[in-house]
Amino acid sequence: MNKTGRNDLCPCGSGKKYKNCCMIKDQALKQNQTKRYYRQNIILKTPEEIEGIRKAGRLVVETLDLVESKIRPGITTDYINNIVHEHTIKNNAIPAPLNYKGFPKSVCTSVNSVICHGIPGSYILKDGDIVNVDITSILNGYYADASKTFFVGTPSKQAAKIVSVAKECLKRGLLMVKPGNTLGDIGWAIQSFAESNGCSVVRDFVGHGVGLEFHEPPQVAHTGRRGHGLPLVENMVFTIEPMINLGRASLRILEDGWTAVTIDGSLSAQFEQTIVVTKNGYESLTPFPLE
Ligand code: MF3
Ligand code: CO
Ligand code: CO
Questions:
Q1: From atom 7 of ligand 1, which residue's Cα is the shortest distance away?
Q2: What digits encode the pLDDT tens for the residues 81-120?
Q3: Residues 6+ apart with CB under 8 A from 92
Q4: In the chain, what is the greatest distance between 2 CA atoms, to the nearest angstrom?
Q5: What whole-number distance in Å separates Cα of residue 155 and Cα of residue 152?
Q6: Alpha carbon distance, N-terminus to C-terminus of the chain
Q7: Candidates 81, 145, 286: which one to mutate for ligand 1, based on the most atoms within 8 Å of Cβ?
């Protein structure tokens, strides 16, 4: 469209030749545009945007820590919602889940056989439960998304196993992240560890690009084949959030339209972080230890 020749008059109206006026700036802008988009409408983030997501991520991790300090038998999942909501608002941020596609609360709380998208309510946590708390905050317009599964009181052997496998799955997925590796490598690392430990990987929900919106492309599957799928490039920002079941991978959605539960009633656990691909690997923008 803008096909001004180098010796034409500059379209800005300066009266100068284009080559002596706006040509250089226009070329730089065009290069920026092509650098910004990778494939499938994936937006590569600028250093300023990454810093914005990092700040949102710090708040998410701080809120997870606050929740962790309050987890004990006897509290309701609504109480977790209140903690997350108040702490987020107090820090001039917005809880992304609230009213997202009609979701009625500020955080997802997924207990035992709930895989994800559990709605906080009057359920009272009891000794031996596991609960995933999935927090997404919007700070200055930037989104960061992370979750952890907590023990309530003393875990059963089964609970300890599924939480430890899910945590290790996230860790192994993260270790695959570097330029040149593919999305399939991430899925492969997660799937092979989970299945070799007799667990299954949920297929119906995936990780996702994040940062300028809650859910951006690409989809990040937690199963896959080595070397398959999209190659990773520097400045991609996305989540890895494997949902791992003790039994079968199949799920059903409850009447509320959100709560995803294992079809066989088996325990399910999940850990999630938001990461950016760096020159040599990745940086977590929602860092917490995965010991
Ligand atoms: N935080 C979830 C994720 O990891 C999405 C929750 S959507 C909601 O992608 F509406 F349930 F909050
Ligand atoms: Co997510
Ligand atoms: Co999440």
A1: 97
A2: 999 999 999 999 999 999 999 999 999 999 999 999 999 9
A3: 139
A4: 78
A5: 7
A6: 55
A7: 145
Q: What is the pLDDT of residues 147-183, one digit of tens each?
A: 999 999 999 999 999 999 999 999 999 999 999 999 9
Give the Cβ contact number of residue 21 at 10 Å: 18
Local mean pLDDT, 10-residue blocks, the chain (291 residues): 82 88 73 76 97 98 99 99 99 98 99 99 98 99 99 98 99 98 98 99 98 98 98 98 98 98 99 98 98 88
How far apart (Å, rounded) are the C-alpha atoms in residues 82 and 58?
Answer: 19
Q: What residues are in contact with ligand 1 under a 6 Å CB criterion?
A: 97, 100-101, 103, 108, 117, 134, 136, 145, 241, 272
- Reported as type and span, the H/E element at residue 139 is strand 130-139
Question: For residue 238, which ligand has an atom nearest its CA?
Answer: 2
The one-character DSSP state at 14 is S
Kindly give the number of the ligand 1 atom that is closest to the alpha carbon of 210.
Answer: 9
* Ligand 2 centroid to residue 279 C-alpha, Å: 23
Question: DSSP labels for 45-101?
Answer: PPHHHHHHHHHHHHHHHHHHHHHHHH--TT-BHHHHHHHHHHHHHHTT-EETTTTGG
* 100 Cα nearest atom in ligand 1: 10
Residues in Cβ contact with 251 at an 8 Å cutoff, skipping those fewer than 6 apart = 115, 202, 204, 260, 261, 262, 263
Residue nearest to atom 8 of ligand 1 (CA): 97
Whether the Cβ atoms of residue 160 and residue 214 lie closer than 8 Å to each other: no
